[in-house]
């Protein structure tokens, strides 16, 4: 009997808890309501996921390219889209935290000497030629460093502009590092087990078909390349290690490297000479210079970047390497060329900066003299003890100190713009006109233009990716001195995406030799990381060791740019915080922290090595079984 | 898309005309008795196996079934030689010669056939595929 009562109690409890689900009783409506809300929520989530997928920009374009050219060409456009995202964040940071506050709450154009076009240049300040060079009105605007005032707070919200300028600069660099490292670590996971060569043939047979290809012409190319691949691998396997004429091969390789070295040296010297000449031109009157003289240096850099890779290709013919190895050598050489060019450019720029800093001292002395004269003249006009209008000099008439930061910003902006133009013109002439010529003159030409020379161009993935990476390096270098640079780059990437998508579909043919894009992804990201590191080093050096100009920018009047942090700590934070931070920056503590970090790096390195060894051990065990 | 009763016959799979395994794919995923057309559910199955989110296990399982031309559960020399012929295209000049084919298949069996029975079964196939870095990115169709 007791058991029956227990069972009854349990049954009652069950029914009362699940009343709604059972469809009877009091809880029915509440339960039905809960179910309906849960279904609606699930539907909403699904719709939101669909919406997010539809929002991804340019997805259709990239899919079309993928099906026509295979995954390696599409990987370039995916990389371009990813860069666009990174640049968008940089642009939002600089625009909303630097340019917008200055525009809304800073003093307007014409109120301060540093914000006005000097009287001497006023007549030509709005000419297109001057604006294209980013002089004149463009120079004295929120686009460049020199426009910003050094007041500690601006506007009714007391927005601390110099602090924000400094912090946004550092944040941009930090964010870029984070995002590149995150992308790299994600790709390492995809790599699988690293490059094992144990299943060479099986992989070639089972995994070489790219299921994304939808175009018959590309499929034909893929068939050809797979067949070639098989035949090569088979002959490599069969051929004995015949060392035919090692000495000749070694001599030819040495010769090729020697030529490459000569080319690199030659291009470095050419750039240095062009920069020196541009300094001479800067001394002359701008109206006497033609278009070439004004843009000589940018043109030289862009043209070198265009022609030297073809020279490297030519020298590589001497070397006779396996195509994959030859590709790596070519990439390495182009990378060295572009890096060398960039660094020579920076060295020449540092030269100019030092010149301007010297000039500053002279101008400072001159200005004090000028001020003394003005005051004397003003007082002299009131020698009869009468009251006159207050002392006023129009800002355009005040003599100006040189501003090296704006000059650096201008150089980078000009370089970016000329690079963009060169790329587009190259694509138009090299790809489009060539394709038109081959297509239309084929009817009346002696040999078959489409199969022989010149035929249609193939899409040069590595060249384009390297150009993209180096452009990004220039943006990272210049954006501290020209806050408008990320914005200009956004425009550039946007138009580049459409233009290159059109050019690729219209004028290029799929590559005859189809390389896998999977492993190169980390290679390109690794180069991007290296460029990021190398391009932020000069900026950090300039921030830490060069004194800011006394007459322009948010840090004018300070001894070093980073003093703005110390100033903020003193004024805006309670005094106990400043005391704590001062204790923390005690040298002993800092050295201890550095030692701990070194030890941590050593420990992690040792753990990684140990785990790799354990991995290899396990692999061997599995093979034996 | 399809004709009668919304089924997809292999001639209408326009996107996969360039794919050398189009017939095998159709056979593997089709649930009709004649195994020559795909219903909507079959098409969904196909897309889900080829999508980004499918696990490597599933992909390798289906890849094995696609490569198994005679549907006997193992890849023997005949299957492998038909597979290689599919990959090298239809033209006479692109095919491998008999000696090259023999060499290639010998190499494959030497690498992957662990129990030395002259055929590759599912676990040996999965063993090889799981070590490949390119498989997941090439065995994928994203719409």
TrEMBL record, chain A:
What sections of the protein cross the membrane? Answer: 84-105, 159-181, 254-275, 330-350, 523-544, 584-604
- What's the protein's topology in the membrane? Multi-pass membrane protein
Q: Which molecular function GO terms apply here? A: mechanosensitive monoatomic ion channel activity; voltage-gated calcium channel activity
GO biological process: any one?
vestibular reflex
Pfam families reported for this sequence: TMC
Q: Which family does it belong to?
A: Belongs to the TMC family.
Task: Give the protein name, as stated in the record.
Answer: Transmembrane channel-like protein
Q: Which gene holds the coding sequence for this protein?
A: TMC1
Automatic annotation (TrEMBL), chain B:
CDD domains attached to this UniProt entry: EFh
Kindly state which keywords UniProt assigns to this record, in alphabetical order.
Angiogenesis, Apoptosis, Calcium, Cell adhesion, Cell cycle, Cell division, Cell membrane, Cell projection, Cytoplasm, Cytoskeleton, Differentiation, Lipoprotein, Magnesium, Membrane, Metal-binding, Myristate, Nucleus, Repeat, Spermatogenesis
Task: Tell me, in one coarse class, where this protein mainly resides.
Answer: membrane
A GO term from the CC aspect: filopodium tip
| Compartments, record wording | Apical cell membrane; Cell membrane, Sarcolemma; Cell projection, Filopodium tip; Cell projection, Growth cone
Specify one Pfam family: EF-hand_7
- Give the matching PANTHER family: CALCIUM AND INTEGRIN BINDING FAMILY MEMBER 2, CALCIUM AND INTEGRIN-BINDING PROTEIN 1
Its recorded name reads Calcium and integrin-binding protein 1
Species assigned in the record: Pan paniscus (Pygmy chimpanzee)
